[in-house]
Amino acid sequence: VDYKTEDFAASSRSGKEIKGSNIIATIPNAKAKRTIMIGAHYDRVAAGSGAIDNASGSAAVLELLRAFKANPAKNVVIVAGFWDQEEVGLVGSREFVKKGSLPNVYINFDVYGAGDTIWLWTADENAEFAKNFSKTAAANKFGFLVSKEYPPSDHRSFAVPGVEAFSFSLGPASEAASIIKVLKGEQIDPANFPKVLQTIHTPNDTTDKIDANAVVKSLAVVEAAIRTLDK
What we know:
Layout: E1 2-11, E2 17-27, E3 34-41, H1 51-70, E4 76-83, H2 91-98, E5 105-109, E6 117-122, H3 128-139, E7 143-147, E8 164-171, H4 173-183, H5 212-227
Parallel strand pairs: 3-4, 3-5, 5-8, 6-7
Antiparallel strand pairs: 1-2, 2-4, 6-8
């Protein structure tokens, strides 16, 4: 797959210069009418090895690139973005968006390493893609959740006019519900505090937390949902 790197330098809120490099890969299509972009941040915090957050998301995007390379889309260009400096404020993806040349659809992957439930964020739960994903997941008997509540990630950078933005995570069903309560500021039983929030950004974020079989099984559902946009 053809790819390029795009270096950037940006200022943080404190005025500190932040440098990084995004990686952009493309599966071209001369007949394409639209562009679908899939993406994930590849940077990590210092603690742990960043397996769940977010080598898992980057691996998901690579797997989808492989699938679309083997069986190309008919009417869309597939572009992948691997974002740098997400952990300090979504910097890499924001810098990409500032440059223009935006996709029609952006689909993000963050914290996608294990679990039995695919969690889709959408600003509009009635969006065609959200409905198509729900139908696809149900048909494949894979757990799913669609909601407007969702942790911050690079999908926020693409919440601009002309772009439909979405984001996927993979995790246990019970934890997704608990995370939504945390995001809403609701009190939850400490015994039920989501394990993923005790894993990411800590020394516990290591490769033994990854369930590769669950990831691969879930990506078949996600790929099928993305292909419904190829029209």
